[in-house]
Design a protein that fits this description.
By secondary structure, the protein is an alpha+beta fold. The chain has two domains: 10-50 and 96-168 and 199-256 and 292-402, Outer membrane efflux proteins (OEP) (Up-down Bundle), CATH 1.20.1600.10; 52-95 and 259-290, Single Sheet (Outer membrane efflux proteins (OEP)). Helix content is 66%, strand content 13%. Strands 2-3-5-6 form a four-stranded antiparallel sheet, with no helix packed on it. Helix 2 packs antiparallel against helix 4 (99-165) and helix 6 runs antiparallel to helix 7. The protein is rod-shaped, with a radius of gyration of 41 Å. The chain starts with 9 loop residues before the first strand and ends with a helix. The relative contact order is 0.14.
Length: 405
Amino acid sequence: MATFAMQSFAQLTLEDCHQMAHDNYPAIRQYSLIEQSRDYTVSNAAKGFLPALKISASAYAFTDIMNLPAQMTTATGDMKNDLLNASVQVNQTIYDGGAISAKKRVAKAQADVDKGMLDVTMYDINNRIDQLFFGVLTIDEQIKQCLLLQDDLSLSRKTVDGMMKGGIANQSDVDAVEVEQIKARQNETSLRTNRHAYLTMLATFIGKQLNDNTVLQRPAQPEYLSTDQSRRPELDYYTAQSKLLDAQKSSLDAQLKPKVSAFALGMYHNTVSSLMHNSLFAAGVTLSWNIAPLYTRKNDLHTIDLQRQKIESNRATFLFNSSLQNQNTNGAIDNLKQQIAQDNQIISLRESIHSKSKKKVENGTETVNEMLRDVNAVSEARQQKALHEIQLLQQIYNLKNINNN
């Protein structure tokens, strides 16, 4: 007797596959790169408040600098036509109008956007894993029903063999049963080949070696699923984009504000004239205000507003499509539940018909081909129910995935 059994070489749950697929996906490495890039950018922006040191040296050669009367030349001495000097200047930002803080906010907001986009990419992997995982489970159920059909055909073969010995059946009846047995074995071979292909693709995603002995654990049916879409990473991504625009607007505002800084300057040069000292020191405060950003501010703000409208449009489109997916999936779930209830009725009736058909064949009032038709009908009804059960589970997890439950 053929039975459905797989060696427990390895058992995988759907959650395990999700986690392994995330860990194995090449894009996962971008998370650490985004964090490092953010930290470096923020650190560089923060260094804008550190003192700026400028060191310079120069050498000059001149023609006669001044044409002085002889009496003044005697008083001042000859003036040299070459100048060698070196200077050290230190500038310290006192007030930058919030420009540095704005740069840090932009850097952090940009990192959040990059991370949000990566979250969306990684979340989509769940759906791809679900398709492969439930594909294997569907094939497993089909193999199970195929083996049950082979069991039924084996029993039918024994019945026909006994009838042939009693002179009620002939060789053509035996051949008809054997044809159905061969077709069932062909179907099993095809199903196992497809299963191997699905497992190969799943193994590529999760980065683990899987073979034909691998068993996928059928997930439990969730008792409750929320239709709240606020947990989806796409919505966090849109929020991060909006915050980035806020940070960019703050940066535009900071560009309009004046800047205040202090400086200290020390200089040393060779003796050009006895009237000049060889060194000097200066210190003070500077106020600067660049009005150039005023020229483009209107267009810059308009660009930000257009980007914000685009983000909100994408958000509304996503919520609309998600709502449609919720409705369609819930409809499919209700439909499958009704079909499964009807499948149970069909199986019960088919089994009753088959049982009566078997007795009729034994009594010689029905042909073997008619009995085989009823055997196949029972098998088909069982396969339909098994397929509907897997489809129901898949749709439930699809709804779970839609709303990130």
